[in-house]
Design goal:
The chain has helices at 11-23, 35-44, 61-71, 86-94, 107-124, 161-172, 180-187, 193-209, and strands spanning 3-7, 28-32, 49-53, 77-81, 99-102, 135-138, 141-144, 149-152, 155-158, 177-179, 216-221, 225-230. By secondary structure, the chain is α/β, with parallel strands linked by helices. It has 2 domains: 3-124, 3-Layer(aba) Sandwich (Rossmann fold), CATH 3.40.50.2300; 135-230, Winged helix-like DNA-binding domain superfamily/Winged helix DNA-binding domain (Arc Repressor Mutant, subunit A, Orthogonal Bundle), CATH 1.10.10.10. It has a 5-stranded parallel beta sheet with strand order 2-1-3-4-5, with helices on both faces. The radius of gyration is 20 Å and the shape is elongated. The model has no long low-confidence stretch (mean pLDDT 89).
Length: 231
């Protein structure tokens, strides 16, 4: 069971998050209500991930994150704040944060972000694993993720970076559902409305690139996400 340090000065929100993550995420969650208490807990125990509220008494989340980074460079940190200013986001990443979520947020979104970060850590901790797949056969097309090219009938279609990342996720989930939230958080790191509209544009372009093979389709799965269907 993964252990999470949750530092949140709002007792109601803190208990709500703790209960949800322990029930739905099956994590062990240690809840602290201020930065000083959070630093003491981190100094005495080992954690797999930290969620730090930015606006807190005694010691704010950015200061706490900086002190945690002096102890551990590896533990993932998610900053949570009511502020949505770009300079705050920049500060979060400059201090070694791995993600940033703006209040109010959906608890389900926080859980997705936690799982995404823990998966990244798990991959880094398994250097003996085989090389990452970079070439995918999609019906009559060959997609090379490294060069960001689709090959078909001797022709090449160059993809943008985000187009290539999106097509790779679809390929890895070929004939299965890629959820909208998973795609947005993996590529854009935020599943807000504007990023969603941007992803829709990229999906339209990918459909255009793959339209010459009738056995290949990118389907919308209502209420869930998308499916790369290869017959």
């Amino acid at each position: 069971m993964k252990k999470i340090l949750l530092v949140e000065d709002d007792p109601n929100l803190g208990l709500l998050l703790q209960d949800y993550l322990q029930l739905k995420g099956k994590f062990e969650v240690v809840l602290c209500t201020d930065g000083d208490e959070g630093l003491k807990a981190f100094s005495k125990q080992e954690f797999d991930l930290c969620i730090l509220d930015v606006m807190m008494p005694k010691k704010d989340g950015f200061t706490l994150g900086k002190e945690i980074r002096k102890i551990s460079q590896a533990v993932p940190i998610i900053f949570a704040t009511a502020k949505a200013m770009m300079e705050d986001k920049a500060s979060a990443y400059d201090l070694g944060g791995d993600d940033y979520i703006t209040k109010p947020f959906r608890i389900e979104e926080l859980l997705l972000r936690i799982n995404a970060l823990l998966k990244r850590v798990a991959v880094k901790e398994q250097p003996e694993a085989g090389p990452e797949q970079t070439q995918f056969q999609i019906g009559a097309y060959l997609f090379d993720y490294t060069t960001q090219l689709i090959h078909h009938n001797g022709l090449q279609q160059k993809l943008s970076t985000k187009e290539a990342e999106l097509l790779r996720l679809l390929c890895l989930k070929k004939n299965a559902v890629l959820t909208r939230e998973e795609a947005l958080l993996s590529i854009w790191h935020d599943d807000n409305y504007f990023n969603g509209r941007s992803m829709d544009v990229f999906l339209s372009k990918l459909r255009k690139y793959l339209r010459e093979d009738p056995k290949v389709e990118i389907l919308n799965v209502h209420g869930k996400g998308y499916k790369l269907l290869v017959n």
